[in-house]
Design brief:
single chain, 6-stranded antiparallel β-sheet, globular, alpha/beta, Beta-Lactamase
């Protein structure tokens, strides 16, 4: 795991040019052609931390990110991000290559956003105590970008995996940071990890073959049928969605249909702090 406080940076090409502020709790490192790199702290403060990156610097970082085999990462590039060992996700910004109304690749990469994965044991204790002290329930967890949803889901998986059969659908390998199928982050003693599956395919695979007590997945969207079938089979689901409030969650297309399927809903702020919660109606 990368510890931003020790100034480790998951791309050697970038690390040679960047000097992170000592002791800062870094959430992101943003690299942009023609501009200085910027470190973004957990609190949202933006700190310049390098001389300007040239177009070649960005190209070299991108080549390293793809392990010098861009075609091997064509699917990830089309989706706009690549996940590194350790669960660190690098977002890509450039020019979309379209085909049939869909993005099939991204060219002319002009900036990279390195999101630092962090394992924070205990950050889900408030949610666990509120919703799971008496047993399992289905929970839809909302929060704004960088509110810590992924970190909290990982910690919930760890805690629930000590006493229940958990299936973790890790579509982007951010939750478990698996290497050759083995999680490198603690997701629970009795947790099975399905990497690279879409949410719907992962849910149905887990339901058919793993007999889970609960299925956990990140950033759910148009997955109504899989979630409905799962919940109606007696298996609980814990999933995350982007929204800043319960009101936004109920109005957002996709989650407006999903919300009534869940026993409970909650909104978190930074570091897993519970902002709102209620039983879904």
């Amino acid at each position: 795991m990368i510890n931003a406080k020790t100034q480790d940076i998951p791309l050697k090409t970038a690390a040679a040019k960047i000097r992170l502020p000592a002791g800062a709790d870094i959430a992101e490192i943003r690299l942009r052609a023609g501009r200085c790199a910027a470190a973004v702290t957990v609190s949202g403060k933006i700190i310049p931390c390098s001389a300007p990156f040239s177009e070649k610097d960005i190209a070299d970082c991108f080549a390293e990110l793809c392990r010098y085999s861009v075609h091997s990462y064509s699917r990830e590039i089309a989706e706009g991000f690549i996940t590194l060992d350790g669960g660190h996700r690098v977002g890509l910004c450039g020019t979309a290559v379209m085909s049939g109304g869909a993005v099939v690749s991204v060219k002319d990469i002009s900036s990279l956003n390195i999101r630092i994965a962090r394992e924070v044991r205990g950050c889900a204790e408030e949610l666990y105590g509120r919703f799971f002290a008496g047993g399992l329930c289905s929970l839809l967890l909302a929060g704004r970008p960088m509110s810590g949803k992924t970190t909290v889901l990982r910690d919930l998986s760890r805690m629930l995996g000590e006493k229940y059969r958990v299936a973790l659908i890790d579509s982007r390998n951010e939750l478990s940071a698996s290497v050759r199928g083995l999680p490198t982050l603690d997701v629970g003693e009795n947790t099975d990890v399905l990497c690279g599956y879409t949410k719907s395919a992962g849910i149905m695979t887990a339901l058919r073959s793993l007999s889970p007590d609960v299925i956990i997945c990140d950033e759910i969207g148009d997955d109504y049928e899989a979630v409905e079938q799962c919940l109606f089979c007696g298996v609980k689901v814990i999933a995350a969605a982007h929204a800043g409030s319960l009101s936004e969650l109920s109005r957002r297309r996709g989650t407006d249909r999903l919300l009534p399927l869940f026993d409970c809903a909650a909104v978190i702020g930074g570091r897993g702090r519970l902002l709102e919660s209620r039983a879904a109606s």
